[in-house]
Amino acid sequence: MGSLPPFLLRHTVIVEPFEGNGPIGPEYGEQTVVRCFVEEKRRLVRDAAGVEVVSETTIYAPLDTVCPAESRVTVNGRATVVIVSARRDGGGLPTPDHLEVACK
After folding, report:
1. What is the pLDDT of residue 90?
2. 39: closest CA among 6, 16, 61, 14?
3. 90 contact partners, CB below 8 Å, separation of at least 6
4. How far apart (Å, rounded) are the C-alpha atoms in residues 5 and 95?
5. d(CA 30, CA 19)
6. What is the 3-state secondary structure (H, E, C) of the chain?
7. Which phi and psi angles does 53 have, rounded to 5°?
8. pTM for this entry
9. Please, which pLDDT band fits residue 91 given cuts at 50, 70 and 90?
10. Would you say residue 28 has pLDDT above 80?
11. How far apart are CA 29 and CA 72, in angstroms?
12. Taking CA 98 as the corner, what is the angle to CA 94 and CA 104, rounded to the nearest 5 degrees?
């Protein structure tokens, strides 16, 4: 299978990848429009520090999407922040490889 089938990429989001903290706060990279699948569902996830946090939105994007934790994402006109992102790579197995992004 390789990657997410194009027919599943029904939504678009705007991603501003987190690049670190600067002298006046967080710094973000260039905005990128990403075709993806958006699931608006509340669920409990763990952030990078292992703390349980409620995620309101999960984004399933192509595996080459750059969207680390703390990135800004605009979903359905709503600005949110990435809690955690996880690569789902089957390593050559016939799976739908993708990036799963949990947002606040």
Report:
1. 85
2. 61
3. 1, 97
4. 11
5. 10
6. CEECCHHHCCEEEEEECEEEEECCEEEECCCEEEEEEEEEEEEEEECCCCCEEEEEEEEEECCCCCCCCCCEEEECCEEEEEEEEEEECCCCCCCEEEEEEEEC
7. -135, 145
8. 0.91
9. confident
10. yes
11. 10
12. 150
Provide the mean pLDDT of the chain.
93
Structure tokens at 22: 């600067």
Give the whole-angstrom CA distance, residue 101 versus residue 83.
8
Domains of the chain: 2-103 (2.40.10)
Residue 64 tokens read as 């080459």
pLDDT band at 57 (very low <50, low <70, confident <90, very high): very high
Long-range CB contacts for residues 41-47, cutoff 8 Å, separation at least 24: 43/102, 45/83, 45/84, 45/102, 46/84, 47/83, 47/84
